[in-house]
Amino acid sequence: SDMSHPYPAFWSPRVAGLEPYVPGEQPRIANLVKLNTNEHPSPPSPRVIAAIAEAARDGLQRYPDPESTSLREAIARRHGLQPAQVFVGNGSDEVLSHAFLAFFQRGEPLLFPDVTYSFYRVWTQLHGIEAEAVPVDEALRIEIDALARRAERGCAGVVIANPNAPTGQGLPLDAIEQLLRACPMRVVLVDEAYVDFGASSAAALVEAHPNLLVVQTLSKSRALAGLRVGFALGQPPLIEALARIKNSFNSYPLDRLAQAGAQAAIEDDEWFSAQCRAVIDTREGLALQLEDLGFEVLPSQANFVFARHPQRDAATLAAALRERAVLVRHFRQPRIDQWLRISIGTRAQCGVLVEALQAILEG
Ligand code: PMP
């Protein structure tokens, strides 16, 4: 091979700049306790399964509604908004990627915290967007004053995850409002993938703020990671921009099964509130047990906890857990490489995790 190219010669430099993605593992191991990708520990609502079965029996030979009208109406109703304020996509990752293209290519840096969802940086690289990571504080909290001051000096926009990933810490809505006021002519994107486990949704601010885009997913609190549905809430000009991006890619609309299942999930409030409460209860119990084992645990408003042991190397702990068929997430990243992100499983799964940790720490 030609040594002057550290990558295949056909590649454009933008592709060469992309890190190979290491996905959250989905291995096939018997009796696996899978606490590494923040999936819901239970199957979705039975109403979702019934709606998908019905959609499968009736009409798979026909194309789906390209506008996902009925689903968007259901999402709008749930958040007290109009369907023209709702955009849906194949998972929130697709919605986020479209939003980066629609709003942030403007020759100024897009701002996000230096500890956050790793895909924000990937999309800036992929779409040729300048990025500036604003440091979080010693306790890994987003420094809103610093971020707002930086935004006032000029930026392409701001992206934050609330609660943040992978730390799980939530921000109050007045912090979001501070960001919205800091750059009124730029979009502030609030990624609420984990908001239903105890944080406050900025959806309530959409009517008052033309520069706010809220993104949510059905992958976590609705237990539908396998169905691939996410959505954005914002005023119609922002939603229209996302639709133009999507249509320009000729991306597929949600398929019939996804539209039907997602609508049933959004409408099943009873299943939703009971399941969110169960995850939160389990999380609080697990945090206490981890502290008993000597871990420092960040306060979490998500369906995972972020924890470190003062005497044990995190990568070594993750590997030892893996040998016992318990998967947790370790990030080889500056600032957080001594931390473990542990998704909230069932009570039984969390019990297996705690027992495994006990054995490892005693060994
Ligand atoms: N945002 C954050 C912060 C996430 O952690 C995830 C899940 N990995 C996503 C968005 C994307 O989720 P999905 O594409 O399944 O909606």
TrEMBL record:
Catalytic activity: L-histidinol phosphate + 2-oxoglutarate = 3-(imidazol-4-yl)-2-oxopropyl phosphate + L-glutamate
CDD domains, per database record: AAT_like
Keywords carried by this UniProt record: Amino-acid biosynthesis, Aminotransferase, Histidine biosynthesis, Pyridoxal phosphate, Transferase
EC number from the UniProt entry: 2.6.1.9
GO molecular function, one term: histidinol-phosphate transaminase activity
Record PTM N6-(pyridoxal phosphate)lysine, positions in chain: 220
Top-tier EC class: transferase
Pathway recorded for this protein: Amino-acid biosynthesis; L-histidine biosynthesis; L-histidine from 5-phospho-alpha-D-ribose 1-diphosphate: step 7/9
GO biological process: L-histidine biosynthetic process
Domain of life according to the entry: Bacteria
Domain Aminotransferase class I/classII large: 31-357
Assembly with partners or alone: Homodimer.
Protein name listed in UniProt: Histidinol-phosphate aminotransferase
Organism encoding this protein: Pseudacidovorax intermedius
